Amino acid sequence: MFCQTNFSFLQGASRPEELVRQADFLSYTALAITDECSLAGVVRAHTLIKNQQLDLQLIVGSLMRFETLEVVLLCPDKAAYSELCRVITNARRRSEKGHYQLAEWDLLSLRHCLLIWLPQGCEQDAHWGAWLMRHHQGRSWVGIQRHLVNQEQRFIAHCEALAARYQLPVTACGGVLMHHSERLRLQHTLTAIRLNQPIEQVKGELLVNAERALRSRDKLSKLFKAPWLAESLRIARRCTFDLDSLRYQYPAELVPEGKTAMQHLRALVQAGQQRRFPQGVPADIAQIIDKELALIEELDYPYFFLTIHDLVCFARSKGILYQGRGSAANSVVCYCLEITAVDPCQVSVLFERFISKERNEPPDIDVDFEHERREEVIQYIYHKYGRKRAALAATVISYRFKSALRDVGKALGIETTQLDYFIRNVNRRDRGQNWQTQLAELGLQSESHKGQQLITLVEEIMGFPRHLSQHVGGFVISAGPLHDLVPVENAAMAERTVIQWDKDDLESLRLLKVDVLALGMLSAIRKTFALIARHTSRQLDLAELTRMGDDPQVYKMLQRADTVGVFQIESRAQMSMLPRLKPSCYYDLVIQIAIVRPGPIQGDMVHPFLKRRNGEEAITYPSEEVKSVLSRTMGVPIFQEQVIKLAMVAAGFSGGEADQLRRAMASWKKSGELMQFKEKLINGMQQRGYEVSFAERIFEQICGFGEYGFPESHSASFAVLAYASAWLKYYYPAMFYTALLNSLPMGFYSASQLIQDARRHQIEVLPVCVNASEYDHHICQQHDKFAIRLGLRLVKGLQRHSAEQLLAARPDTGFSDMSALQRLGLPANTLESLASANALKTLQGDRYAARWALMDKEHTLPLFAGHSVAEPASCVFQPDDMDDLVEDYAALGLTLGQHPVTLLDKAGKLGRFTRMAQLSACRHKSLVTVVGIVTGKQAPGTAGGVTFFTLEDDTGNINVVVWAGTARAQKQAYLSAKLLEVKGIVEKEGEVIHVIAGRLIDRSEILGTLHSKSRDFH
């Protein structure tokens, strides 16, 4: 049976796993997964068969169409597999993303693949029959399908005649598009989506019955002649290729001639030791280095480390800041290779996390590069290894609620305006009211036939792949042509190619990838270093900051939750945790970053940890084995590695079982596979003397970590950047804020919020000025202090090339008048944008006068060149503060004038309310009214339907907690308000202050046309 999965996008109506399970249930001997010009679905089928030890043979293949030829290519061996990958790659690379273009040469070049020809019942069948007999004799079959359609017997007779004429054997074929007949409606819907027409208009293109589902062997024996079925078994016996036989080899050119890879790696580590430890390597660290190098040699991973080292050397040579992370990245070897700035003297290096020999895990190293310069590293890889040997891993873009509702709704003929209304008003974060119920409240007639179809089909299609996209930076680099290993195709972005497998597929086959990722904070830190060097002559880098040790003043700032702009600990949830956890050293910061995650929160680990840390609860361990795993975190599992290790030391999991547990944790909400480990885990702990309650609690914690567990190795690397950004904010705030502003978009806060925080730290911020601003924001001296001058990049509607043209022509003394600016020949809309941003204030008063002056074109006429022209009549309109405020937000997205809350309060439009700065004086549980601009909404999946609002008034940010019931009852204000008034109750826990919302009042109408933006549901 050859099958197309849902990786034959908008054709196949079942997942690879569903097809495999159904084939096993029906007692099939073999199943061929043959997506069209693709191998994207085969790994998932292979993984399920392997993990569940199913007695089902997987045949790897692909369906191809060329002119009037339709053929299924199957892989009997590794040579055929490489051949098929090459053909798919060629066909995909010739065409734009999502399409393919076969050439006859591709098919002629096949020497190992088996070909099942699917005749089309047209005149050209005779040509292709002769062609197959001439070029592929002995490896070709005529495939006959039985789908019980009109005139099928006549078509079968035609196929049999072709087989006899060209001496080709006949085999039975399924042409399967779904694992079960119940998926027929979904397959019809997918067809309509693919054709971009409602189902009613494409009836002629739809399947007429459900015969393209997997059918019982009994039914097949009645439909197909016995010799045809027997031939399909003979084909299956010839197909012995197994995906596990694939072997990955790293490129060897990184090793100097005359040296082995291991010798070269040892030499690089030796040289790095002298740089990292100029006073000499401590004895314990030297011992760890020896152990790590021995393990790298034993497991044959030197090329992996050399490949990563080569990339960071390139980045360093170009001045690109980077930081490695991952279990292997936090090794002393990687510290010596300068892959990471995590000082092993500062954090205890757990050897078993480096490369888990016991679990047979490959090394894990991700390298984050500056987000603005990561492309340079990517192009270096392509240039060094070529397109044939390097490509990005794929990311499967799947249907989520909004895309599913829109596409299914259109296929069912529902008006686009109605679908947009549904999407805009459904609150997916309301745990107490599912989207189906909300659609009914919004006007969907859920009891009608179409309403029921919509709900059912949206539920079925969610999670289905829509298309393959490029991974954010996971590279596969091979010693030979990559298309021998996996098909390669074009990405949507120019100069990018991707393989057809995603990171999970690569991991399933134990194929290594190099992660080249982008991180905005690295751009900001590097720019901060550059500004410090320029204005103070002090040279800094990440490694130096970590070697300086923990600075008490920096940690005091963190304990106050003064972390706007600080990496990883700037969110509302992190700010609430900081005064409670009170980090005072680097490892505290490692825990701080990891603990405010869904894993520890869902596993109910946060409160026990805080109680133990504060001395309110005793630290106990049920055994020395458990203590060895949890002593670093006071007996509470915080990190993903800990819960996996617990399964091994406390429940007796083998290395392989622990690895399966880790994979199940990563996808358990999608697949539910984690539940199969519950009995083994609990029984294993009981047998080793642990109480049932402890075992069940550990399993619940493991479930909490499912999909969300944060590894200690990643947290340790992130903590370096969190500390570095906090240190820079404390000691060089003007440079830090300037660098952040020049690195946007990134992080958690907008330019407006960053500037307001800078001003709260007594940093003067100067406005955009056509005579004083550069394109980027820059540092200047103002009253013997560092100040920030806003850059032209902030002006909406101003193109960079126009800004650069203006700056190149600007005299050293600046433009003297409007006419000098007008004579530059800049587009009229560029000058108008500058005027609206009040950037021409030094030339023409306010923005209104500047716009009025721009209407006078006499200055630009040749007749008046070199002559003074009378000033135009001045603009009679005199703006007030609110006019300027609205204009500032429209032109710049921020204001340096009075805050909207200040102006509205002065105008008497807000009534009585309490400002953020006054909340600390309020009694716990007292009633309060607060007002502010909505700058953020967070609805974590672990918060039980709670949403955390951030309201900004003229004294700071207010944290508002909105319960699910409150949000549901006041949905309009909850979803839409820009200016929100909240009547609620103050709750205080130490220095943490929240307002628990009772009533939400949308006051947006009094803002007029103010263009404020909220960062919602991130």
UniProtKB/TrEMBL annotation:
Keywords: Cytoplasm, DNA damage, DNA repair, DNA replication, DNA-directed DNA polymerase, Nucleotidyltransferase, Transferase
Any GO CC annotation of this UniProt entry: cytoplasm
Reaction it catalyzes: DNA(n) + a 2'-deoxyribonucleoside 5'-triphosphate = DNA(n+1) + diphosphate
Function: DNA polymerase involved in damage-induced mutagenesis and translesion synthesis (TLS). It is not the major replicative DNA polymerase.
Family under the similarity heading: Belongs to the DNA polymerase type-C family. DnaE2 subfamily.
Top EC class, one word: transferase
HAMAP family for the chain: DNApol_error_prone (MF_01902)
Pfam families linked: DNA_pol3_alpha, DNA_pol3_finger, HHH_6, PHP, tRNA_anti-codon
GO BP, sorted A to Z: DNA repair; DNA replication
Name of the protein in question: Error-prone DNA polymerase
CDD domains: DnaE_OBF, PHP_PolIIIA_DnaE2
Entry keyword Nucleotidyltransferase: yes
PANTHER family in alphabetical order: DNA POLYMERASE III SUBUNIT ALPHA (PTHR32294), ERROR-PRONE DNA POLYMERASE (PTHR32294:SF4)
Subcellular location: Cytoplasm
SMART domains, A to Z: POLIIIAc
Superkingdom as given in the UniProt entry: Bacteria
Entry's EC annotation: 2.7.7.7
GO MF term set: 3'-5' exonuclease activity; DNA-directed DNA polymerase activity; nucleic acid binding
Keyword Transferase found: yes
Stretches assigned to the Polymerase/histidinol phosphatase N-terminal domain: 3-68
